[in-house]
Amino acid sequence: MERPGHGSSPAEGARRRTLLARRGEDAAALHLERAGYRILARNVRVGHDEADLLALTPAGAVAVVEVKARAGPWRPEERVDAAKRRRLARLAAALACRGGFRGRMFQFDVVAVREVGGRTEVWHWPHAFDG
Question: Terminus of the chain with fewer CB atoms < 10 Å: N or C?
Answer without folding.
Answer: N
